[in-house]
Amino acid sequence: MPFLWMLFIPLFLTATSFEDKVGALIIMGFRGMSLDEAPELKMQLDKHAIGGIILYDWDSPHQNNDRNIQSPEQLHSLCHALSTYPIWIAIDQEGGKVNRLHPTYGFPSTLSQEALAEDPAQNLKQAHQTAALLHDLGINLNFAPVVDLLRERKSDVMAKSGRCFGADPNSVTDLARMVVDAHHSHGVACCLKHFPGHGSAMGDTHMGFVDVTQTWQSDELEPYKALLNTDMVMTAHVFHAHLDAQYPATLSKAIIQGLLRETLGYQGIVITDDLGMKAVSAHYSLKERVKLALNAGVDLLLFGNQHEYDPQIGSSVKALILQLVEEGEVAPARIEEAYQRTRRT
Q: What is the tally of structural domains in the chain?
């Protein structure tokens, strides 16, 4: 089966200028229940400064739920307004704890991936229900399923949150394939996460540096090998000295271009995990993060705006990429390559 984004998202087909192509590589989070409440976002959309948005129900900087999701009716209206632009409208809807469409806002309850692993039929049923809901709302990209193998059972961010299907790569692959296929049947793209594997990590990359050198195992790559037709792969900010002695995975050419693309043969879109997370933001400047990620082979740069909020982050990153190109730090061909992957038809 071909990549879904080839079938339904003609991203930036009218983006003929190099500047617009740069903007197409940026996804950002924002505040607002409607476009009227988000004038900075609308300005960036109008100027082709970004290629997509990510929706949240919780605003971490303010520690409240005044972000993007209030009710099914409100969210449908917001997504309808956003859909007038040819962009990714993305969400993290894994189920269980990572559940932006919470019953509190009038949405159906969901089970975690850990719970769904006990009942494959229920996993398939929930995948179809989720995908149908996203399609009806106007959301075209789900940052799911998680294919991290459950190896570190004391991990707060993975194991204790119920985000993993399990420890066996074959079982994880089968359950994840159900999710991907169900989403595709409803016209919604999927994203495997977090490459090359976060399930063996004890630490939380939201909070700081995480080293998996001694715990990571090569079979954590198996779901990626088996699901090469998935639309996107999200990188992890984990560090593995034997895979790259200098950079975490998101910023590593050896891991993204070398391991994922050349060794495993993945040809789809690669997106970063949130580049505002402390595992990278505490150690690399914004300019370094953007340069290293693009040169590593990443196609889409994600800025969730859930750490330090910047309503103009899309425009700022676009200007920064153009500066990097002008300075010779990022090749125009790398921009063109990334852009072509996001609009392949």
A: 1
CB 11 within 8 A of CB 299: no
The one-digit pLDDT tens for each residue of the chain (345 residues) are: 445 544 444 444 455 799 999 999 999 999 999 999 999 999 999 999 999 999 999 999 999 999 999 999 999 999 999 999 999 999 999 999 999 999 999 999 999 999 999 999 999 999 999 999 999 999 999 999 999 999 877 777 788 889 999 999 999 999 999 999 999 999 999 999 999 999 888 766 676 678 999 999 999 999 999 999 999 999 999 999 999 999 999 999 999 999 999 999 999 999 999 999 998 999 999 999 999 999 999 999 999 999 999 999 999 999 999 999 999 999 999 999 999 999 863
Q: Which residues are known to be catalytic?
A: 206, 273
Query: Which domain covers residue 192, as residue numbers?
Result: 5-343
CATH code for the domain of 245: 3.20.20.300
Calpha distance 191→188 (Å, rounded): 10
- Whole-angstrom distance, CA of residue 190 vs CA of residue 20: 24
* Cβ neighbourhood burial of 74 (10 Å; 0-12, 13-18, 19+): middle
pTM of model > 0.85: yes
